[in-house]
Every structure is written in structure tokens, then in C-alpha cells.
């Protein structure tokens, strides 16, 4: 029986594969990944590493992958921050606040992400030109050429100083984690450790002559110079993903906090804890057990949904691979690459989130 | 508020409501502050919004009239509503997509009522959906309409219905395979589910446009729409199978053992004992997933199929009505929201109802 099934599946795969092979032969394509080294004659608007027409397809796909990773990472962080805040507001005693958040969540959740992205990109292109850019607090500029935010600029950084900074940061994380664990025994030392780290880092940087500054953009002539510039597509995609997933995370946070039973609050109050401490010490650790696994699948969705970038023209992985497939005709190989890369992105996110989950999961209880 | 305080509160309904609002808005000084801030925010944002939506809006006229005013251009919606809902379908035959929408709406309404959950629906539903496809294509008649001319709401609804109807039976088989005792079968099922769930739907749609024509035998080349439907069905199968697995796992093991001890074979025990209980448990989850799928059909726009979102976008590129994207998107958003919000309310209602008269 099993042999029959496996043989059946295998034969389907073989038939489909041979069909693809014959079609490719008919069009005159050679199967294989040789095309990756050929020169790509398209431009990519933005990326973390430079790309010009004439660079190889492999490099183009790398640029796309990095763009996907960048937007996903930023999207996850911002969506989490906004989502947690919204989830808290949804639970607030204020009827007006919780009602407002409720309708935000309902509207965002019940309209397609693609529609929201169309809306955001239309909004981004409808912004005024740089000369009349909308300015927030003289630091953030919104214009139809892009969004400009202040950038942290580090100059004249020597290798030794950089190593010291990394080492101090690692030590700080280790100390805080240790403090976190010992807090259960009544000890905690994250604050002095943080202060000490900041002091050491600034002393080392000052001694090595490195400069850290915040560079704010400014309008000059017909353009905006300085600071960190985000293209309209990137900004629209980031805002779209953040808004959509913050609504989902808000619901998860709300469900997680509501899953902590009423008696836990009452018991903590009976012990004389104040509201802030109840939330931090009693409710949150229990709620996180519900929240973390749900957030994991949410992050996975965010990574996958970042591929909607194709619809608004942000050069993410899917967009670049699609262009590659169209210009080379090697659709099979290109899609195989994209599938493998998304699989590995997913595995990476799952691995990180599972590690987080282990730290919040119930300890000392062995599953039966 | 403690239980004692709650018990002392006036029991009259109006009084309770009044108290709830008063404490909810001005209970503590923090609450009052929040209320005042939000109130100011609303007062600041509402008038311009209202002016745009209603007061300064243009209700009839041409695009020039709209451009003369600052507000929304509802004249555009009035003029292009037919295009947004039905897109390029030939005008003299437009009763067909209208009838399709009506039929699908009736099917949805009937399927939503637990009273009609009978064997007939399992057979009748797919038959109606199939008839809808034939009607759109005008199949046994002289005036055929190729899927390339389909568009708007009927496409969104039809793709949704067809793919869901195909996916559910496949997903049941897949979830059974996922729990099978046969190692090879189980591994294949796990591999398929994990593979499908790890890739974005956009990739699936590119498979449909780029790969499927290459993989199908030469004689079997079809239009873009059926190809997209095939791939989406295969994609959704994996998601539904995971929901089904949850239901199957929730059926106590004793049920299976009892069925076996009555002498029922695997298929009969699944069909008569296990699946009815499992399905009952997963229906609310399935409804939620179906809403997600409806929203996901909007991705058809990426491969150039004219679903309702794409039709709305195209409507705003009409030279006579150039650039009224906001209005077009608002209309479509309202349609999606109506179905999605209604569906999620329905799912909650169903959960309560099934929970009340369930086996427990």
C-alpha cells in the first residue's frame, strides 16, 4: 500500500518534471543554474548592497533577499511595539480608548493587505514635493520622493573600539539575563550594569576619537539632504505591514492577558502588589506563554506577506526573482530558488522564536 | 470594582448603562484625561473627514465637477460602479455575472444556517458553484465569454467558492494522511503541508502563471484563471488540512476504539464516527480561515486577473475619471469589510451555538 502511494507520487513528479524539461527544450532553454552568473540588465532601485545593471543575477537575488530581510525585521519590531501598545489600550478601562482600538483592529483585519498597500503607496505618492515637505518636529520629512528620518552616524570608529563596544554589549546582555534569573531569588542588578556599560562605552569611544552624532535631514534646494532616506515604496510597505500586523498582535496580546484568570489578579492584589507590579510579575509571565507561540506564526505571515512588495514596486526577493524569471525565462529554477529561500527564512524565524518560547515556557513541569 | 460593589449597583438597565459609561469615561483622573485627549483628537479629525466625505463631496456630474470641489467624488463611483463590480464582462450579457453573484450569495446564506447542514448541501453546493462557472463562461450556449473577460466581484466570489469547495475534501484526505499510521504517507503529507505553508501566496500565483503551463502536457494548456484556481486550491488545502487536524486531534481516542470494536473498518469509522465530530469542532475556525482566504483572493491582482480590487484600480485609470483612487478603494474596502466583519460576527455566533448544543 505504502509502496503504491510513494510510487504514485513519484510518477506524478516525474511526469511533471519531464513535461517541464521538454517544454524548456522546445523553447531552447538549458535547465540548470548557470544563468545566475550571467549579467542582469535591469536596475534595482534600492538595496543594502550596491547593484547596477550588468551585475550578476546571483547578486540581484542577494539584494532582493536582503531587502526582504530588512523590511521583515523592521516590520516585526514596529508591529510588535505598536501591537502591544494597542493591545494594552484595548484593555484599558476607558470606553472611548478601547472602542477606538477595537474599530481600528476590525477595519484593518477585515480589509485585504493589498488594498491597504495600494492606499499607502497612493498616499506616499500624493505627498507634497520635497520643497514643501510635511515636517514633523523638524526631524521627520514626508515628501513624494520619500520619507526622511534622522540617522545615527558613527564616524572615525577604530576596530579596537568597535570590538570593545561589542564585548561590553555582550557582557551587558549576559548580566541582564543573569539578573533576570536571579530576580526569582530576590536579587536584581540590571540598572547598575546598564549604567556601567553606557559609561564604559562612552569612555572608550571618546578615548578612541570616534564620533557619534545624529544627522537630521534638511531641505536644500529642490531636494532633502542628510539623514536616512526611505523610498516611498519602502515606507508604504513598512507602514502597511506594521499597521496590518499590529492589529493582529493587538488581538493576540489582548487574548493572552485575558487568558490569565481573574483569581491571579485578585491573589496578587491580596498580597499587596500595585497594579504595575501585578502586570509585570504575575500577569505578563503567564500571558507571554500564550502570546509567544501565536506571535511566531504571525511573524512568519509577515515575512511571507512582505512579498506583496511586487504589487507596489519595492525590490524584495519575490520582485527580483520574478524579474529574473521573466528576463531569463528560467522560471523553474528561479521559483525553486525563491521557494528554498522563503523556506530558510521561515526556518530562521521559527528557530529564533522557539528559543524565545523556551525562555517563557512553563518550567519544571515535564509533559506527561 | 468588587463583586459586592457590583451587587449594590442599581439594577435598572438604564442606570447600569449610565454607570458603565460614567466610570468608563471619567472613572479616574487618568481616564478623564484620556477621554479629553481622544475627544479633542476626534473633534480635530472629524470635521475635515466629514467635509471630505459628505459636505464638500460631489454627488453627480463629471470628473471636471469633482475636480472643482475639494471633497470626495461620489459621481465617479456612480458612473463606474458597474465597471468596478463587473469589469470587462460584455454589457449585453451582464445578467450572467449578476445572476452568479446572486446564486453565490444565496448559497452562502443557506450554507451559513445550521438548519441546512445536510447531505444535500454537500452535493448541492459544488453543483451550484459548477453551474456558476458554466454560466459565466456561457458554456452550452452560442455566446461564450472567455475567462480573460471575467472581472470584478463575480471573479472574487467565484475563485473563493471554487477553491474552497475543491480544497475542503482534499484537505480532509490530507489531514487523514497526516495522521495515518503509514510512515511514508504521513511523511509525504507533512512535507506537503509544511512546504505549502512556508511559501507566500504570491509565489503560488507565479507558479500558476509561469510554471503550470510548462508542467502540464502540451494539449492541456488553459487560461490564466483556471490555472490560478488549481494552484490556489492546492495552496489552501494545506491550510485547511491543519485546521482539520486540530479537529481530528480533539476527538477522543475512545471514539475510534469504540468504532473499531463495533467492527467498523477505517473508512466507515472515519465517515460515520470521527469526521462528523471533528468537522463540527472546526467549523468556526474554518469560517475565520475562509474570511482570510477571501481577503487573500485580492492577490489575484498581482498576476493581472481582474478581481474586484484590480477592477477598482482600473476604474481610476479611465481617462474620463482619472485618479479617483481614494473613492474606488473606499468602495472596495467597504465591500470586503461588510463580508469580513459579517463573517467574523457569524463565526462568534456559531461558536456559541455549537458550544451550547455540542456533545459536551
TrEMBL record, chain A:
* UniProt superkingdom: Bacteria
Q: Which GO terms describe its molecular function?
A: transmembrane transporter activity
| Family indicated by similarity | Belongs to the binding-protein-dependent transport system permease family. HisMQ subfamily.
Question: Which BP terms in the Gene Ontology apply to this protein?
Answer: amino acid transport
Give the protein name, as stated in the record.
Amino acid ABC transporter membrane protein 1 (PAAT family)
Q: Supply the alphabetized keyword list.
A: Amino-acid transport, Cell membrane, Membrane, Transmembrane, Transmembrane helix, Transport
Q: What is the lineage of its organism?
A: Bacteria, Pseudomonadati, Pseudomonadota, Alphaproteobacteria, Hyphomicrobiales
Please report the stretch or stretches of sequence annotated as the ABC transmembrane type-1 domain.
65-353
Q: How does it sit in the membrane?
A: Multi-pass membrane protein
Instruction: Provide a GO CC annotation, any one.
Output: ATP-binding cassette (ABC) transporter complex
TM segment ranges:
71-91, 103-127, 147-175, 195-214, 234-257, 278-300, 334-356
Q: Which PROSITE patterns match?
A: ABC_TM1 (PS50928)
UniProtKB/TrEMBL annotation, chain B:
Q: Where in the cell is it found?
A: Cell inner membrane; Cell membrane
Q: Where are the transmembrane segments?
A: 21-46, 95-114, 121-141, 153-177, 198-216, 228-244, 290-312, 324-343
Report the Gene3D superfamilies cross-referenced here. MetI-like
Superkingdom is Bacteria
Q: Which family does it belong to?
A: Belongs to the binding-protein-dependent transport system permease family. HisMQ subfamily.
Which NCBIfam families does this chain map to?
A: HEQRo_perm_3TM
Full protein name = Amino acid ABC transporter membrane protein 2 (PAAT family)
Which organism's genome codes for this protein? Bradyrhizobium macuxiense
| Organism lineage string | Bacteria, Pseudomonadati, Pseudomonadota, Alphaproteobacteria, Hyphomicrobiales
Amino acid at each position: 500500500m505504502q509502496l503504491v502511494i510513494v510510487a504514485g507520487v513519484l510518477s506524478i513528479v516525474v511526469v511533471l518534471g519531464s513535461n517541464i524539461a521538454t517544454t524548456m527544450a522546445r523553447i531552447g532553454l538549458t535547465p540548470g543554474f548557470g544563468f545566475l552568473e550571467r549579467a542582469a540588465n535591469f536596475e534595482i532601485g534600492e538595496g543594502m548592497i550596491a547593484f547596477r545593471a550588468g551585475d550578476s543575477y546571483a547578486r540581484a537575488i542577494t539584494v532582493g533577499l536582503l531587502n526582504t530581510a530588512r523590511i521583515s525585521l523592521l516590520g516585526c519590531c514596529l508591529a510588535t511595539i505598536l501591537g502591544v501598545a494597542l493591545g494594552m489600550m484595548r484593555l484599558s478601562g476607558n470606553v472611548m480608548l478601547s472602542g477606538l482600538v477595537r474599530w481600528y483592529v476590525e477595519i484593518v483585519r477585515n480589509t485585504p493587505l493589498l488594498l491597504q498597500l495600494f492606499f499607502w503607496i497612493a498616499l506616499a505618492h500624493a505627498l507634497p514635493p520635497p520643497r514643501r515637505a510635511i515636517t514633523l518636529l523638524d526631524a521627520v520629512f514626508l515628501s513624494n520622493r520619500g520619507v526622511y528620518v534622522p540617522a545615527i552616524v558613527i564616524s572615525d570608529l577604530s576596530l579596537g573600539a568597535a570590538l570593545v563596544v561589542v564585548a561590553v554589549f555582550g557582557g551587558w546582555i549576559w548580566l541582564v539575563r543573569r539578573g533576570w534569573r536571579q530576580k526569582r531569588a530576590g536579587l536584581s542588578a540590571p540598572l547598575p550594569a546598564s549604567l556601567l556599560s553606557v559609561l564604559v562605552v562612552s569612555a572608550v569611544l571618546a578615548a578612541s576619537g570616534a564620533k557619534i552624532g545624529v544627522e537630521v535631514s534638511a531641505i536644500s534646494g529642490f531636494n532633502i539632504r542628510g539623514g536616512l532616506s526611505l523610498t516611498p515604496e519602502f515606507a508604504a510597505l513598512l507602514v502597511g505591514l506594521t499597521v496590518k500586523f499590529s492589529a493582529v498582535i493587538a488581538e493576540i496580546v489582548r487574548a493572552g492577558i485575558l487568558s490569565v484568570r481573574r483569581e491571579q489578579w485578585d491573589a496578587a492584589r491580596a498580597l499587596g502588589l500595585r497594579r504595575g507590579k501585578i502586570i509585570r510579575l504575575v500577569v505578563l509571565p503567564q500571558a507571554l506563554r500564550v502570546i509567544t507561540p501565536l506571535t511566531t506564526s504571525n511573524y512568519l505571515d509577515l515575512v511571507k506577506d512582505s512579498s506583496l512588495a511586487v504589487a507596489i514596486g519595492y525590490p524584495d526577493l519575490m520582485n527580483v526573482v520574478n524579474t529574473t524569471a521573466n528576463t531569463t525565462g528560467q522560471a523553474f529554477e528561479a521559483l525553486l530558488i525563491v521557494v528554498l529561500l522563503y523556506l530558510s527564512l521561515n526556518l530562521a524565524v521559527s528557530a529564533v522564536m522557539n528559543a524565545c518560547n523556551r525562555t517563557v515556557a512553563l518550567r519544571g513541569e515535564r509533559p506527561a | 470594582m468588587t463583586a459586592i460593589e457590583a451587587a449594590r449597583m442599581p439594577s435598572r438597565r438604564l442606570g447600569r448603562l449610565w454607570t458603565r459609561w460614567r466610570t468608563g469615561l471619567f472613572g479616574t483622573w487618568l481616564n478623564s484625561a484620556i477621554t479629553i485627549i481622544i475627544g479633542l483628537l476626534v473633534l480635530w479629525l472629524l470635521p475635515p473627514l466629514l467635509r471630505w466625505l459628505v459636505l464638500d463631496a460631489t454627488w453627480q456630474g463629471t470628473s471636471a465637477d469633482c475636480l472643482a470641489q475639494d471633497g470626495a467624488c461620489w459621481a465617479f463611483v456612480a458612473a463606474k460602479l458597474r465597471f468596478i463590480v463587473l469589469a470587462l464582462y460584455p454589457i449585453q450579457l451582464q445578467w450572467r455575472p449578476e445572476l452568479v453573484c446572486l446564486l453565490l450569495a444565496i448559497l452562502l446564506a443557506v450554507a451559513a444556517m445550521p438548519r441546512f447542514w445536510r447531505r444535500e448541501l454537500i452535493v448541492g453546493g459544488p453543483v451550484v458553484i459548477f453551474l456558476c462557472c458554466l454560466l459565466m463562461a456561457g458554456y452550452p450556449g452560442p455566446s461564450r465569454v472567455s475567462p480573460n473577460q471575467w472581472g470584478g466581484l463575480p471573479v472574487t466570489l467565484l475563485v473563493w467558492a471554487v477553491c474552497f469547495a475543491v480544497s475542503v475534501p482534499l484537505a480532509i484526505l490530507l489531514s487523514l494522511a497526516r495522521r495515518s499510521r503509514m510512515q511514508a504517507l504521513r511523511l509525504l503529507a507533512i512535507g506537503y503541508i509544511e512546504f505549502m505553508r512556508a511559501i507566500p501566496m504570491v509565489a503560488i500565483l507565479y507558479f500558476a502563471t509561469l510554471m503550470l503551463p510548462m508542467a502540464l502536457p502540451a494539449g492541456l494548456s488553459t487560461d490564466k484563471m483556471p490555472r490560478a484556481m488549481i494552484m490556489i486550491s492546492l495552496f489552501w488545502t494545506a491550510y485547511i488540512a491543519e485546521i482539520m487536524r486540530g479537529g481530528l486531534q480533539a476527538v477522543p481516542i475512545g471514539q475510534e476504539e469504540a468504532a473499531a470494536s463495533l467492527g467498523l473498518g477505517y473508512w466507515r469509522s472515519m465517515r460515520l464516527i470521527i469526521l462528523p465530530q471533528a468537522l463540527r469542532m472546526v467549523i468556526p475556525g474554518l469560517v475565520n480561515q475562509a474570511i482570510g482566504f477571501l481577503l487573500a483572493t485580492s492577490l489575484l491582482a498581482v498576476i493581472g486577473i481582474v478581481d474586484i480590487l484590480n477592477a477598482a484600480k482600473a476604474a481610476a485609470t479611465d481617462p474620463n475619471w482619472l485618479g479617483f483612487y481614494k473613492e474606488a478603494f473606499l468602495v472596495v474596502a467597504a465591500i470586503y469589510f461588510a463580508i469580513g466583519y459579517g463573517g467574523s460576527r457569524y463565526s462568534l455566533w456559531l461558536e456559541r451555538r455549537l458550544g451550547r448544543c455540542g456533545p459536551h
